[in-house]
Design goal:
single chain; 186 residues; alpha/beta; Rossmann fold; 9 helices
Length: 186
């Protein structure tokens, strides 16, 4: 990836990408850093509300807090936009402020990608409808596969981390399997 495409991300994307890095349990994959890979491969933008949501997740002694701490340590690699006063409020249909502002920002910036983890819900369809360019909609498993395709992350690591997410985060195994077939088994 020679030219860095603009990517807009929401809170769960950042936290999920940081999770395997801070997870010391045996089932956590090693050999890659998905958060660092995203931040180096793309020009990553996020609404300030997302950083607020990440900050709210800190302070505990659990995996989520550790992931949030890692995201905040890497936050200087993100371009943060304070857009709360430029939007009307959260979009309807169950999206939180970070997701709503992320969709708005992706449209405003004409971003190459909007990355979300709303693929296990009807919110994915709603986000697809409100994005100006439907080709910009990516999910975390999709971006991981893209990072493997472009040799930013090793294919073996991405395969292992996808299994990790299916087992620990409840990601849809059928969706992940389709992404594996399309991107990793070529």
């Amino acid at each position: 990836m020679s030219e860095r495409a603009v990517a807009v991300v929401d809170t769960n994307v950042l936290l999920n990408l940081a999770t395997p890095v801070v997870d010391g349990r045996p089932q956590a994959p090693s050999g890659g850093d998905p958060l660092k890979a995203l931040l180096t491969a793309y020009d990553v933008h996020t609404p300030a509300s997302v950083i607020g949501e990440v900050t709210d997740a800190t302070g505990g002694d659990d995996l989520l807090a550790a992931a949030a701490d890692l995201v905040l340590q890497a936050a200087h690699h993100l371009t943060t936009h304070d857009i709360a006063d430029r939007t009307d409020g959260p979009l309807d249909y169950g999206l939180d402020r970070g997701e709503s502002e992320g969709v708005w920002m992706a449209n405003e910036l004409e971003a190459d990608l909007f990355i979300t983890d709303e693929f296990n819900s009807t919110n994915y369809l709603f986000i697809n409808l409100v994005l100006d360019d439907r080709n910009t909609l990516f999910t975390t498993p999709h971006i991981l596969c893209t990072l493997a395709t472009h040799e930013v992350l090793p294919v073996e690591y991405v395969d292992a981390v996808l299994t990790y997410y299916v087992e620990t985060k409840g990601w849809d195994p059928q969706y992940v399997s389709q992404l594996r077939q399309h991107h990793l088994e070529q």
